[in-house]
Amino acid sequence: MTIEHSRSNGTTEFVLLSQGKKAIAEFEIDGCKAGMAVDGREETCWKGGPYYKWWKLDLEKVLPLSRIRISAYAGDERYVHYFVEASQDGLNWTEIASKKDDAVATLDGVWHETSAAARYIRVTVTYCSTDEAALLRHVEVYGSDDPLEMEAPPRKASLLFPATEWDEGEGFGLREDDELEPGRRAVVAASDQAGAYLLYRDVDFTAQGVSQLRGEFGFANPDKSLKANLEVRLGGPEGVVIGELVLFKQWKRWSILAGELFSSDNQPLNGVHDVCLILKSIDPGQTLLIHWLALAQATAFPAPRPRPADLPAPNGEYRVYFGNLHSHTGFSDGIGVPEYAYDYARYTAELDFLAITEHSNLYDHYLDWDKSRKWREIQEIAEAKTEEDAFLALYGAETTWYNQFGHMNTYNMDFFINAYETKFNDIPTYYELVKRYPDSIQQWNHPWSCGNRHLDGFAPYDPELDKVMHMLEINTIESKELGGLYYYVKALDLGWHIAPVGSQDNHHGQWGTENTLRTGVLVDRLTEEHFFDAVRRQRVYFTSALFLQVWFRVNGAIMGSRISETEMLSFDIVASYRRETGQRIVRAEIIGEQGIVLHSVECKEPELRLQLELPSGQRYYFVKVYQEDGEFAATAPIWVE
């Protein structure tokens, strides 16, 4: 929350306020510390990377501001984008300036007029045209050095307030913590006692009402299995229960989490109330830490779209394209930036498509998808980097349950889903949400890792979820059971209609060259419409053999089809390399339920062309094609109904 102040012409002297003040940053490159942006020297600067990093200044007291000068000059023809926020309390922020144009950075920089009253200034660099660095050479903040007497912000819906400022409490104490932000120590509330409580009086839910309790929660013990159960009541420790949050350590020690609030009579939670948080239970060895709290209205998800009609088959044969459907950049926990990732995938790795799927809990505003700048910008970058029939720059999001259920990718959705909304730790609740979006694409990620529940073994089978659950990752490097197909076969045997995909899950760059895992897709044209049509109809396959094209039909129907049962089934398999790789095809297998090989044939020709008949008797069939070094392609099934 930023309060405006009025300017006096000729009566207020505006001076440089920022020089020598303490600055911190989300990340610092060696030799380019945050304080160097306010040291007044031409030869120094702050630098962090990749961009989308913030830099923050503490003016030590709330002051009336007039102007801010920002220079991102680095001696080249770069231009940068950024936005500037101001805050009085370090919790509630308001944007006061931005630079979105492509004007080249100069040593003089850009002047931004403002009438904000603030103690803290935060600059987030969102783009640089010449490299991946976020750089600030000078940040100069001008205003009056006569401090303003400010009242504490009200406890009002959507505004953050310190958890340490409780009106009544028992079993909680104060504790210093230095892991909230680099270079900063903060006082937080802490307790390891079941039954401890905090009471905050006169919290204004507003006429609109609230549906979430949000907070920045930390955990003294990094063990993710240790949980704390926090109950939310109105009035006091014996009041009406309106919510319950099951909390545990997520990716980092501190996370912003949100729990759903409700009323027993289904009436809006509005008006002014005393709010009590009770630590109902906490596992031995854990201490719950709370930095700030807020009551808020949960961001609504958009209206669903219907599933598009299937596209007609091409006049000739489907074309095969190769790519990677799971990757990350420095916009979450990878390296680099999306622009470079797409270019690397296209021009270095020679992929036909790349999907960037950042962890949904690592976006900015990750509890409010419609406010996330990263989410919008990745979509804009993807659109700019896509060239139909040449390269598809795709995007999605990875919903992440740390050390719990596992990870899943979502595609073709206007929003992302974040398991930091604690209601989505109940997986049926998550599944019910994605089932509402019939045009969406859902993918189970690396079931062999990143979750002690291993996606619950894909059980139970749900025919409605089956309509949007289209893909499952397999990986012959990390998961060798059943030749890498264990989880794929397990899901098929349960009844799921899914296709196997090869993904690299890049966190260290090398988008497409980290290994040979690829996803093949059969389409008439390389467009987003044709691509998602192929995925919905399972014309998709896994390959660890570079450029190995496979066409698989039963009774004339292409892979991914569902056909009526006949006494005999006519199989038609064609495999070849799109380009010379130095390898050759040596064997093909037809595989049925439980991963049993039903037929195998050796290949001694440059291309595999196989036609044969087998008696019916399996619910599904897929094909595995090997090259001489043991790498292979495994297709989506054809289901017999």
From TrEMBL:
InterPro entries linked to this entry: FA58C, Galactose-bd-like_sf, Pol/histidinol_Pase-like
Species assigned in the record: Paenibacillus agaridevorans
NCBIfam families reported for this sequence: CehA_McbA_metalo
SUPFAM superfamilies recorded: Galactose-binding domain-like, PHP domain-like
Protein known as: F5/8 type C domain-containing protein
Pfam families the UniProt entry points to: F5_F8_type_C
The F5/8 type C domain, residue ranges: 1-144
PROSITE patterns: FA58C_3 (PS50022)
Top-rank taxon, per record: Bacteria
Annotated Gene3D superfamilies: Galactose-binding domain-like, Metal-dependent hydrolases
